[in-house]
Amino acid sequence: MVSECRQVIDNVDSIVKDNTIRAIVRQLISERVMSDSDGEKLIAQRNEQLKMIQGLACLTRDDVQRQTQVAVVLSAVQARHVIDKLWNMQEKLMTVLTRLIGSGGYAFDAFCSSYGLEGNLAEMSSKLASLNLLSESPSNVCVDRNMTFDLSFTMLTRIVYKYSSLTLDELVRDPRGGPDNTACAFYQWSSRYVKRISQKNLQDAAEGDMPIFSPELKAAYKDRVLRLKERQLFWDPHTCNYGQLLHEMPIVGEIILDYFKERKHIEEDVARIFAAFRKANCLLVCIIQWLECQSPSEARRQMARCIKMVLEESVPDEKEEKDRFLTRKC
């Protein structure tokens, strides 16, 4: 039955955004018209079909999970109306943005989508870019400079991956003629990263495009990396220039990669280095992006696995994050 009417059912599911077969079957089971085993087989068959259809695969998720996600989305849309009034009130703005970045990313994605539907995403992202530029160097303008820089950088990075059709220039420049934020650290770093990623897949890409660091320079930075093993930052969050700090991440990344190449490392020590970066997530993002630009190797794979392990250990459970967001509605 499902196979014979599949196109019609696909169209219905696409319109109502629900798994129609599952809803009907569970109703039949509750009325004792269909057995549990037959019903679950039919639902499983339909789920396999939905997994093959772009845009409908999400309908295979359990009803309770989907209801939670819908609640998160609605709360994020409410948060958007609050944030629109807070762009000039940094302390309150950071509180709301911190809540949005959790919940498995659903809340922030919904927040961005609400702007995207109205064609105002670039306007919003340009405000994040302005905050990124404002918080890059020490000043009395930002209430919490470190949080402002970290959140603006990580949020803009997520937008880059979610909305690949938008160029970096479109993301950081207000389309209504606002300030030019191309000097912000996010734009400067991402411009190099995007360029290298695009060149990496070209056969005639110049190997010399990646920076080469002298042994003397790497030796000077090894002590800084060793401090990270003790989970001690080698930068002062109050006085550092984040633009310059981002510029140093490739050197740090290469030193860590050398540990894996030379096999002169203890995995727990390297894990502590990456854990220290969780105090500034934007820097860990840069390390990951830098690593993706490196040539495939066993050392690169091991380093990526170590980063993944640290992230999995430190990221809260997705359901827990969603529940926390819903209990702290903006």
UniProtKB/TrEMBL annotation:
One of its GO terms (molecular function) is transcription coregulator activity. InterPro entries: Mediator_Med24. Its main location: nucleus. It holds the Pfam family Med24_N. One of its GO terms (cellular component) is mediator complex. Keywords: Activator, Nucleus, Transcription, Transcription regulation. One of its GO terms (biological process) is positive regulation of transcription initiation by RNA polymerase II. It is found in: Nucleus. PANTHER family: MEDIATOR OF RNA POLYMERASE II TRANSCRIPTION SUBUNIT 24 (PTHR12898:SF1). Belongs to the Mediator complex subunit 24 family. This is Mediator of RNA polymerase II transcription subunit 24.
